[in-house]
């Protein structure tokens, strides 16, 4: 099966029911304080932040999803418009196909649109390892005119995917080489929905990552998506329905190890209250994918993102914080 077909299937299946982790994010057990006397007006609460040297109107990133097909172009046009109009970050889908066909750039970033304040290109671990990996990383960033690169780690997905490449020897060296090649442009390293162990966070910090996106379990499960693409693959994938580090656990663990590196929380976040909880747990920003994918397909990505930002402002205010950046353990019940 050719890559464009795979991308189309990913986009279609990711929007279907039944492709989420069997276990939750852990955020359902996290509660924010409720202050009935916030002692400030809602409009006085700031939610803007600085991430990777860019000013964002809220600590929010539209997480990486897709690219390389006509259907992806429509989704990405809607997502880019939303991110630009609201002043939030945008991480593009895997740019592997661009290395083979640079003419596909418009399916990732439609021409003529406004630019989000933070734009990250994206490559998988398999593309940055080995000889020439750093050059491939540089190429995809240049093709998209991105501010930096997101490298995604997806061992479970690659192992289950019919045409997967579960070859992860040398990935850490590849990440370090990409960091050196792209400097001073930032390299963010993320999982795809199974979380990061603190030991991996320590290794990524040593490799020079500019930020860590834990992408914990509890949201979209890419093993289940790949299982649906292959006859007989459902049984193989089912064993990994609850695999991984729940998002809340991954954020807390990463925060203890990451030191000065920003921790980005993603994986099953659904609204602005989830964002506020992750910020209180120690995240610097949060990524959301599936809710924005569904909204983009309905032509309302900007409305969906604006609602998340408003929910974040209300949650921050009601928890007693002056700003989203101030949220911390003291705001947890």
Write a concise keyword list for the protein shown above:
single chain; 15 helices; TIM Barrel; 333 residues; alpha/beta
Radius of gyration: 19 Å
Sequence of secondary-structure elements: HEEEHEHHEHHEHHEHEHHHEHEHH
- Count all strands and give the number: 10
* Cα end-to-end separation: 50 Å
Q: What is the CATH topology assignment?
A: TIM Barrel
Total tally of structural domains: 1
Strand content: 5-15%
Architecture, CATH level 2?
Alpha-Beta Barrel
Task: State the major sheet.
Answer: 8 strands, parallel, barrel
The neighbouring-strand order within the major sheet is: 3-4-5-6-7-8-9-10
Approximate shape:
globular
What would you say about this model in short?
The chain has 333 residues and is of the alpha/beta class. Helix content is 43%, strand content 12%. The protein has a single domain (3-331), classed as TIM Barrel, CATH 3.20.20.
What can you see in these coordinates?
This protein is α/β, with parallel strands linked by helices and 333 residues long. It has a single domain (3-331), classed as TIM Barrel (Alpha-Beta Barrel), CATH 3.20.20.70. It is built from 15 helices and ten strands. The protein has helices spanning 3-14, 70-86, 96-100, 105-108, 125-128, 133-144, 155-160, 171-182, 198-207, 222-229, 233-238, 247-258, 272-281, 290-297, 301-318, and strands at 49-51, 54-56, 60-62, 89-91, 118-124, 148-153, 187-191, 211-213, 263-265, 285-288. The strands form two sheets. It has an eight-stranded parallel beta barrel, surrounded by seven helices.
């Amino acid at each position: 099966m050719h890559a464009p077909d795979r991308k189309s299937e990913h986009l279609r299946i990711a929007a279907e029911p039944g492709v989420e982790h069997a276990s939750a994010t852990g955020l359902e057990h996290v509660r924010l304080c409720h202050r009935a006397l916030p002692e400030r007006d809602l409009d006085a609460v700031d939610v803007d932040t600085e991430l990777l040297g860019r000013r964002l109107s809220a600590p929010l990133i539209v997480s990486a999803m897709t690219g390389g097909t006509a259907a992806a172009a429509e989704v990405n046009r809607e997502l880019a418009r939303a991110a630009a109009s609201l002043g939030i970050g945008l991480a593009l889908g895997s740019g592997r196909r661009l290395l083979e066909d640079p003419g596909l750039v418009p399916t990732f970033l439609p021409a003529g649109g406004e630019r989000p304040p933070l734009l990250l290109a994206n490559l998988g671990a398999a593309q940055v390892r080995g000889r020439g990996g750093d050059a491939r990383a540089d190429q995809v960033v240049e093709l998209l005119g991105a501010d930096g690169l997101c490298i995604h780690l997806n061992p479970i997905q690659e192992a289950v995917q019919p045409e997967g490449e579960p070859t992860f020897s040398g990935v850490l060296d590849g990440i370090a080489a990409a960091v050196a090649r792209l400097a001073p442009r930032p390299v963010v390293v993320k999982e795809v929905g199974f979380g990061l162990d603190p030991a991996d966070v320590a290794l990524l910090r040593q490799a020079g990552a500019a930020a860590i996106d834990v992408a914990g379990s509890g949201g979209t499960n890419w093993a289940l998506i790949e299982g649906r693409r292959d006859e007989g693959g459902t049984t193989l994938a089912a064993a990994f329905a609850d695999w991984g580090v729940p998002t809340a656990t991954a954020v807390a663990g990463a925060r203890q190890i990451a030191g000065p590196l920003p921790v980005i929380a993603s994986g099953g976040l659904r609204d602005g209250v989830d964002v506020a909880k992750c910020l209180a747990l120690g995240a610097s920003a949060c990524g959301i994918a599936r809710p924005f994918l569904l909204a983009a397909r309905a032509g309302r990505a900007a409305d969906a993102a604006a609602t998340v930002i408003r929910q974040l402002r209300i949650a921050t205010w009601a928890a007693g914080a002056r700003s989203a950046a101030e949220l911390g353990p003291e705001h947890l019940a």
